[in-house]
Design goal:
The complex is a heterodimer. Chain A is α+β, with helices and mostly antiparallel strands. Chain A contains 2 helices and 4 strands, in the order βαββαβ. Chain B has a 7-stranded mixed sheet with strand order 10-22-21-20-11-18-19, sandwiched between helices. The longest helix of chain B is centred in the C-terminal third of the chain and has 36 residues. The chains are: A alpha+beta, B alpha+beta.
């Protein structure tokens, strides 16, 4: 399943790159891109575990860039 | 400026005033002046310090906040209080500026692509409701008022109007629609009220497809962008190690004071932040893609933009790409009567026929057909038509028809299909019908040549002589005619082997029947894609209208984008390199270090926004 999420207060491009890296490392994520310019996360992941994976994504993002929130 | 940015601005102003007060304090203080300077320092820098601590706790060590925190705390430790406050202040000013600049360009890109319809007026049980376009099902009836955007693809049930396609094609060419016509989402209804039955769901409509395509284009990264990502990964740890070495090695080797080298290492750290590159290069590509889509050129990824800029061989399909793909009367050669009379007779005689040639004759004559003037119509298969017009027997058809009825005819020097006209055994003349070349095709080829494309080739399934004639008229380098679709792939493969290793082969077609060739070429361009889903799917670059001249515009814009990206890379790296060297040798101070970090970012961002602008002239 492929889904898009809005990101709020993603303030630095380097952080976006780091978030992208971290999200891609989560188990079950097929592909993820964080666009600093569009303030958007595009994620493709396992259908069955999607909610579970998103919870992990939120956790990882809090760690990398605490100011940025994902609109679920 | 948003709320957050305004708050930062206020902090900057307050801290700047306090810093000035501290500097100019007239009387000696009863305590060390550092306590005074700490007030503006914390006002301006608390969030940076907090973020640095928090990020270290989260295992994110080498970020800007960390660099600024140790640089300024270090400066305070060695007694450079005004400098510490100033650097923090300058850093915040730069960050603010950078935020505003990025926000602005993000908004202008978003505005370029603002073709998403916000709502749809749907008729349910006789009542018109305003809903989100996504909630409208296929087969429902929607109402589109003048001034509104068509939200969903559909067919006009009632009403007539003119649509503006500018948002999709970049060209404001009005399109007339009336009952039974298809309307395409994204167009703006200019004049009349339309009732439309939807034929697609919102997510399958043209406008949703286009938005999806442009938004996803950032996922396909250009080489220049990949370089930046890889670069940043190695660069940051490398400079931190460099800074540590700079702080430790010289004093150990007896090169001077610990504090002096410590300060220099701090300066080195501040200079080294890679932000200018990391922001500006992707921003440049996104701006380029945004600018292109405004001009009706959809590019599916930065990598294709990069490839377009290196176009070496451009291969065109003929019908529908360089020519209009519709048959038109291109010459009227009467032997005995006026031109209009010849055309009138032909159009009347062919008035009952559905053949494309008959249709183009009627279109050329462009007058109401009076049925009562025509009688005894007989179509002669593979020959033409025999009919009585105003009680005179007329023959309209090819060479064979003329032979059959024993009329002496003569051939025409024009390339195309020749239609002879004879009346009562007498030859009246002929009309030539051919697929006309698009008005801007010749200019398009010339522009491509001028912009450095080495070779232009045309592939066609048409007869040799037709292909040759079009090739000569347009000034193409090579023409290959009488090709079957499979032969076209073979031709393109042969051309691929003869290009330079770094050159790019671009194929331009109309997206119908040429999907294999589109995917075989380095860059496949589909044109005239307005309303054609297949073309949008198959190609890497989509020209929304059917003008071949758009291709040279696309190449020009791709080159400009790449030029700006390269400028930013070179500029940022060069400035960093110079300042890093100055930092090592102790020539740069904290001020200059902060400029090298933030100033360069801001300049690079401003430069990146130039990629948004549409260039009409190449």
């Amino acid at each position: 399943m492929k889904k898009k999420f809005k990101l709020i207060d993603l303030d630095c491009a380097n952080c976006a790159a780091k978030m992208e890296d971290a999200i891609n490392k989560i188990d079950g994520v097929t592909a993820a891109t964080v666009s600093f310019i569009q303030q958007r996360l595009t994620i493709e992941a396992d259908d069955g575990r999607f909610d579970d994976i998103m919870a992990q994504v939120v956790k990882v993002c809090k760690k990398v860039e605490p100011d940025c929130t994902i609109v679920l | 400026m948003n709320k957050k940015q305004k708050k930062t601005l206020l902090r900057i102003i307050v801290a700047a005033i306090l810093l000035a007060v501290c500097q100019l304090w007239p009387t000696p203080l009863p305590f060390p002046s550092i306590f005074l300077f700490l007030i503006p320092y914390f006002i301006i820098g608390w969030d940076i310090l907090w973020k640095a601590i928090r990020n270290i706790a989260n295992g994110q060590v080498f970020d800007e906040n960390f660099l600024m925190a140790i640089a300024t705390v270090g400066a305070l430790a060695i007694g450079e209080c005004p400098e510490a406050v100033f650097v923090m202040l300058f850093y915040q000013v730069g960050e603010l500026f950078q935020n505003v600049a990025v926000g602005r360009s993000r908004q202008s890109i978003a505005a370029l692509m603002d073709i998403r319809p916000e709502e749809a007026n749907v008729e349910r049980d006789g009542v018109v409701e305003t809903v989100d376009p996504e909630e409208v099902a296929v087969g429902e009836t929607i109402v589109i008022k003048p001034g509104e955007r068509v939200p969903i693809d559909g067919v006009v049930l009632e009403g007539a109007s003119t649509l503006n396609t500018a948002a999709l094609t970049g060209e404001s060419l009005p399109r007339d629609v009336t009952e039974g016509d298809d309307v395409i989402s994204g167009c703006v209804n200019l004049s009349g009220l339309l009732r439309v039955r939807t034929t697609k769901a919102f997510e399958d409509s043209t406008v949703a497809k286009i938005l999806d395509l442009v938004e996803n284009s950032t996922t396909k990264k250009a080489k220049a962008e990949q370089f930046i990502t890889r670069f940043a990964r190695y660069y940051t740890p490398a400079v931190v190690i460099g800074a540590v070495l700079l702080a430790v090695l010289p004093p150990l080797l007896g090169g001077g004071e610990w504090s002096k080298w410590f300060e220099q290492a701090l300066i080195f750290l501040v200079i080294s932040c890679p932000c200018a590159l990391v922001i500006s290069v992707p921003l440049t590509f996104f701006g380029g893609i945004g600018g292109c889509s405004k001009a009706g050129i959809l590019v599916k990824g930065s990598n294709y933009l990069e490839a377009l800029a290196r176009a070496e061989i451009v291969v065109f399909d003929k019908t529908g790409t360089l020519t209009q793909g519709v048959f038109n009367v291109t010459a009227i050669h009467p032997d005995k009567c006026p031109e209009s009379r010849l055309l009138e007779l032909a159009a009347l005689a062919e008035s009952w026929s559905n053949h494309p040639i008959a249709r183009s004759l009627r279109d050329a004559w462009n007058q109401e057909i009076d049925d009562s003037r025509v009688g005894n119509v007989a179509e002669i298969a593979g020959r033409g038509v025999k009919a009585d017009v105003d009680d005179v027997t007329i023959y309209v058809g090819n060479d064979k028809l003329m032979e059959d009825c024993g009329v002496s005819w003569h051939p025409c020097h024009h390339v195309g299909t020749t239609v002879h006209v004879a009346a009562q055994g007498e030859y009246l003349g002929h009309i030539v019908i051919s697929d006309a070349v698009k008005p801007d095709a010749k200019q398009a080829i010339a522009d491509l040549k001028r912009s450095g494309v080495r070779k232009t080739v045309m592939l066609t399934g048409d007869a040799q002589e037709v292909g040759k004639a079009v090739g000569a008229e347009l000034g193409l380098d090579e023409v290959h005619a009488q090709l079957l679709p499979a032969d076209k792939v073979e031709r393109v493969e042969a051309l691929l082997t003869e290009k330079a290793p770094k050159g790019v082969l671009v194929f331009v077609g109309d997206g119908i029947n040429d999907a294999p060739v589109l995917s075989r070429a380095d860059v496949g361009v589909a044109m005239g894609a307005l309303g054609s889903d297949a073309a949008i799917e198959a190609a890497d670059v989509v020209l929304m209208d059917d003008k071949p001249s758009k291709l040279s515009q696309a190449i020009a814009m791709a080159r400009k984008t790449l030029r700006i990206a390269n400028q930013n890379i070179v500029f940022a790296l060069a400035v960093k390199a110079v300042f890093l060297l100055m930092g090592i040798f102790g020539v740069a101070n904290m001020w200059e270090a902060t400029f090298a970090d933030v100033g360069v970012s801001v300049i690079a961002i401003l430069n990146a926004t130039r990629a948004l602008k549409i260039d009409k002239n190449i």
